[in-house]
Amino acid sequence: MTYWHDKRVVVTGGTGFLGCRLCGRLLDLGVGQVDALGHEDYDLEERFAAYQMVDDLRPDVLIHLAAVCGGIGANQAEPFEFLLKNLRIAANVIDAAADLPKVVTVGSCCAYPLGAPQPFSEADLWAGYPEPTNAPYGIAKRVLCLLGQTAREQYAANIVHVIPANLYGPGDNFNLSTSHVIPAIIRKCLHAVRYGECEVRLWGTGDPTRDFLYVDDAAAGIIAVAEQYDAPQPINLGSGVPLSIREVAGIIGGVCGWEGPFAWDAERPDGQPRRYLDVSRAAALLGWRAETPFVEGIERTADWYRSTAWALH
């Protein structure tokens, strides 16, 4: 029998982008029961709702993905909302779930300091202030990690924290008002090809680097953490390979059939100048590595948008 046999697993944010892929993978592993929860099931900004969730479901494993998130534009438009709502969710979930057998919380690489050495090591999480354009969200994710660590210290809670790189893949958010960089570029390139546009306009200079992790690789990493990891220090999940946004745009353009120019709007913020993760701990302790080549992941994501989301946008 596997670790997951007869276990009940609750995934907050289980109806979202990462949550859907994670729940599908858990079912493939033979989990006894998976509860994929959305905001309509329990409003985790409310303390009572978080306690009600735990009392109703009593999971053997809680994987906490639920968050209010978005790209640079959304973070700049509503920094107070991103900070406040994510702090509320973090505090309520940890408070309610501290006595469960296993809790996995999922943070964000936005939590790392602006000037931290590259690649980002887990030891440097608190070594400075995050990049300002998404600092409120990043700080809320730091607090989520700290809440789990202090609950471990005071109550011997079995809570571990994962920090994934920038996720992408089928099912991502392609709404240009709130999307991250990869779905935004895919959508713009495909629409430019379809409608014969003369250029594709993109935010920033194209110079920043990012670590992009395919969503199914992230799901596999979270499952490995739930099965094997039990330490207070956070653990990174990423490709460990930095790509500039300009390189990413070129790859996406090729996949989407876009042969025209990109117009870079340098007056728009770039965000963190450089960001990629040290994934040596995950490799050493879990035997986990990202497996999906970037071009293959982009092809799958663009195909999903063409076949599933095109009509919606």
Molecular structure report:
The chain has 313 residues and is an alpha/beta fold. It has a domain at 8-170 and 212-241 and 275-292: 3-Layer(aba) Sandwich (Rossmann fold), CATH 3.40.50. It contains 10 helices and 11 strands. The strands form 3 sheets. The chain has a 6-stranded parallel sheet with strand order 2-1-3-4-5-9, sandwiched between helices. A 3-stranded mixed sheet has the order 6-8-10. A two-stranded parallel sheet has the order 7-11. Strand 4, helix 5 and strand 5 form a beta-alpha-beta unit. Helix 6 packs across helix 10. The longest helix is centred in the middle third of the chain and has 21 residues, at 135-155. The chain is globular and about 60 Å long. The N and C termini lie far apart (45 Å). The mean pLDDT is 94.
What is the strand and helix layout of this fold?
Blueprint: E1 8-12, H1 17-28, E2 33-37, H2 47-57, E3 61-64, H3 72-77, H4 79-97, E4 102-106, H5 135-155, E5 159-164, E6 166-168, H6 181-195, E7 200-203, E8 209-214, H7 215-228, E9 235-237, E10 242-244, H8 245-256, E11 262-265, H9 280-286, H10 294-309
Helix pairs in contact: 1-7, 2-4, 4-5, 6-8, 6-10, 8-10
Query: What is the strand arrangement across the widest sheet?
Result: 2-1-3-4-5-9
Portion of residues within helices = 40-55%
Q: Could you name the CATH class of one domain?
A: Alpha Beta
CATH topology of one domain: Rossmann fold
Strand percent estimate:
15-25%
What best-fitting shape do the alpha-carbon axes yield? globular
Low-pLDDT windows of residues: none
CATH architecture of one domain: 3-Layer(aba) Sandwich
